[in-house]
Write a structure and sequence with these properties.
With 158 residues, the chain is an all-alpha fold. The chain has eight helices and no strands. Helix content is 78%, strand content 0%. The longest helix has 23 residues, at 29-51.
Length: 158
């Protein structure tokens, strides 16, 4: 992977996720760099919801991010291009990517959950899917057990 893509992702991670950025430094280089890319992809997606001008079509932009991230569209951004490379090399499931982006779409309009079940559905996409994708990058020996813990930890952090 190009150093330029990794560096752009690293800068996004360092600027917007300081605590996690410093914790990421404890990973071996290959995991650390892939984590920068994963985080940058999440941040770019979340920024569409958090900082975009509401008159622009956030839904369409997130849908495009999703299609770029899963390889349907050609990536238009170096971070998404790098994420796509990591997705392919680590076999990150389209389901987790779609779940994450769909949760970001929910964030555009919804900020109140009437039932815990509604909240659980949101958390599965917004946080638990992040933990599951991170598990693919770390690639632990007991992956199934780790995936369960990553899902629970994601929900706890949410």
């Amino acid at each position: 992977m190009e150093d330029k893509k990794i560096e752009k992702s690293r800068k996004i991670h360092k600027k917007t996720g300081k605590t996690f950025y410093f914790a990421t430094k404890l990973f071996p280089k290959n995991i650390r760099e892939e984590t920068y890319i994963l985080y940058a992809f999440f941040r770019k997606s979340d920024n569409v919801v958090d900082t975009q001008n509401p008159t622009e079509n956030q839904d369409d932009q997130l849908e495009s991010f999703k299609e770029q991230a899963i390889g349907i569209e050609e990536p238009k951004d170096p971070v998404i291009e790098a994420f796509n490379e990591v997705r392919e090399s680590k076999d990150i499931s389209d389901e987790n990517i779609e779940s994450f982006i769909d949760a970001m779409k929910v964030d555009i309009e919804k900020n109140d959950y009437k039932t815990y079940e509604e909240l659980e559905d949101y958390m599965d996409g917004s946080a638990a899917s992040v933990g599951r994708m991170m598990t693919e990058i770390i690639d632990p020996d007991q992956k199934e057990k780790a995936l369960d813990h990553a899902t629970s930890l994601g929900i706890a952090f949410q």
